[in-house]
Design a protein that fits this description.
There is one protein chain. By secondary structure, the protein is of the alpha+beta class. It folds into 2 domains: 30 residues; 107 residues, no CATH class. Helices cover 36% and strands 20% of the residues. The strands form 2 sheets. The protein has a two-stranded antiparallel ribbon with strand order 1-2. It has a two-stranded parallel ribbon with strand order 3-4. The longest helix has 17 residues. The chain is globular and about 50 Å long. The two termini are 26 Å apart.
């Protein structure tokens, strides 16, 4: 896992400069490569799902936002067992819970976990939140092994 910068920034300009340093860009690239290794059909089967990508440029700053939208092709019946993990303060929490309820109503084996006091993506940053990351990994491992 790439190291994350932890020094406080003295200004917005300093934060932008630090985020665009050679070291920060190398860390971002390593993190992206690690995440892309997990994004394959062997680890995360996409059968029965439509995956689309959308690139958005925010205004007025021009930042690029790359979205990957995943939704059932139509009926979710027959999907493999699913874990839905949501974060209490995540703006996408309600959609995750609704998807979990849809899975259950279609007879799909599913489990939903909510990580209290967290925002979107908290558990993927073990340097900042090791307990949340460990708990998430433990829960997902137990689900995959059929013990959770």
């Amino acid at each position: 896992m790439p190291e994350m910068m932890t020094k406080p920034a003295s200004s917005r300009e300093q934060l932008i400069e630090d985020a665009n340093s050679e070291e920060a860009l190398e860390n971002q690239k390593a993190f992206r490569e690690m995440m892309e290794m997990c994004d394959n059909d062997e680890i995360a089967p996409s059968k029965g799902l439509t995956v689309s990508k959308k690139d958005i440029v925010s205004e007025p700053d021009g930042n690029s936002i790359n979205l990957q939208i995943i939704r059932p092709d139509s009926d979710v019946t027959g999907l493999p067992p699913v874990v839905v993990s949501v974060n209490e303060c995540d703006p996408l929490r309600d959609e995750g819970i609704a998807f979990y309820q849809l899975l259950l109503s279609a007879g799909v084996s599913a489990r939903c976990r909510q990580v209290m006091g967290t925002m979107h993506g908290t558990e993927i940053f073990p340097i900042c939140c090791p307990d949340f990351s460990t708990d998430t990994a433990r829960d997902l491992s137990a689900f995959c092994k059929g013990t959770g």
